[in-house]
């Protein structure tokens, strides 16, 4: 279906908004009055600019406080309306939105509202425009979609229809049964459809609407269900996003528009209106890539964690470090510098450039995963590789993290000649042979890591402050991961919010976070959590190898002792090593943290009995401890 976006949803000047909407692939826009008033362009200029950008102007809005008022007041309203209809005509738009009155002058009189809206529609017709009447959830007398529709139906005017707005309808928390009436509205009388989601919050509905709306799929409203009803009614007009959101108002328009359009594509797929390449859910974390300008500190830290440098890239300064099933690439190539500088710039503070730049996701179908990502507007990354290198499918996540879709050869071999599929031959015959990324690496002499063994448990990636919701939607829609509830934590210097996404068996878990301030180094960290069966042994081995664990205050352990029962000496061990403890309905979690390099630190975790979480309870203690170390 045609897609549209209200200019109020994007930041910047009107022309910046229009350019961003066009670049992101929208077909049309709703022009918001304030954007027009603030623009130096004439309505004719705006019309021409939109035409150049390939955008239709689907709606001009809003007109307020028009209907069900005493005659003298209505006469004044008609005078105002005449000016707006003239403007709409000059814009080349054909529909004007009228929202239900909030005026104390408005009377609770449907017949009067219908008669005056009909009179307004007569006037609109003279200018070749139509009126879409929308119930604001806080309208004085008209605040439900069916009430607005009854008035439109009673007016029975060809230039008067209704505008449905998912926020106003769903925010009232109505019974799903109340939505069934939507399908009974004749489709051609639904003149416009505005779509917005919102996080579930208990607050005044006007404040909620004006500050917290978000793109469909980012909040907790059933926008998909509502869309199905509207389609069942026969509506075939544009799907238009109308998002009032304080964060988007400040964020760059280009990326916001792209995320906005992605949300509409995913919504159409969910409502059965469009088919996209199916999601290919990743089945594991093949590798994590760190970029740094100096490999020494990272090598020392990895060495203390028991990783061995097992291979080196054939043509680039990239080392492969392995410990059990965990693989970390350390890249000191020219790509590292701009990344490191980019992060430093984003935060406004110069810092050690070590950062987590890429994730290799194990994929049963890397090409399919890349097609899915591309169809949802994820930037596909140039391969920037030597001709002899294995082809890699990669896309960029909203925060710039590169996601590689890979199929590591079954042997985990690090030599091209070993990269054979040693599975059942019948099985191998049906599957295309994919050269493994490991074929690009040459083994180097090393001593095998001893003792405990690791695999990647989860990755925790702090998002730029304005991209938290987008990141969650991206990881769910593009990668097919499931989202958990977002958790708010009191960081000693503000609020830290976290939301995890994972695959079904938990072999891929990513915790997306957002910190209180964009310039706060501690809250901009990224961490790699390594799972072990014995975190105490792993912590001791790390220390014995010269590693430094994050010290945790004694008060934390005194509190733990009061909350849980531990076996003799257990708590003392945790206290000594800085191991934190959590428990849920399924099992237990023990975890500790290494020192931080640039933006990156490691966490050692032991999950027992099917514990589902990430130790979020303990995050404030961890954040405070990291602030202290700084
Ligand atoms: O918040 C408002 O006033 C407002 C205006 C126009 C709309 O379409 C809407 O949904 C809300
Ligand atoms: Mg609206």
Automatic annotation (TrEMBL):
A divalent metal cation binds at residues 134, 165, 194, 242. Mg(2+) binds at residues 458, 527, 603. Pathway: Aromatic compound metabolism; 3,4-dihydroxybenzoate biosynthesis. Its cofactor is a divalent metal cation. The keyword Isomerase applies. One of its GO terms (molecular function) is 3-dehydroshikimate dehydratase activity. Its EC number is 4.2.1.118. InterPro entries: DSD, Glyas_Bleomycin-R_OHBP_Dase, Glyas_Fos-R_dOase_dom, IolE/XylAMocC-like, VOC_core, Xyl_isomerase-like_sf, Xyl_isomerase-like_TIM-brl. It catalyses: 3-dehydroshikimate = 3,4-dihydroxybenzoate + H2O. It is an enzyme of class 4 (lyase). The keyword Transport does not apply. Residues 284-408, 455-607 form the VOC domain. One of its GO terms (biological process) is 3,4-dihydroxybenzoate biosynthetic process. Keywords: Isomerase, Lyase, Metal-binding, Pyruvate. Gene3D superfamilies: 2,3-Dihydroxybiphenyl 1,2-Dioxygenase, domain 1, Divalent-metal-dependent TIM barrel enzymes. Residues 414-435 are annotated as: Disordered. Residues 414-426 have a biased composition (Low complexity). Catalyzes the conversion of 3-dehydroshikimate to protocatechuate (3,4-dihydroxybenzoate), a common intermediate of quinate and shikimate degradation pathways. Belongs to the bacterial two-domain DSD family. This is 3-dehydroshikimate dehydratase. It comes from Streptomyces phyllanthi.
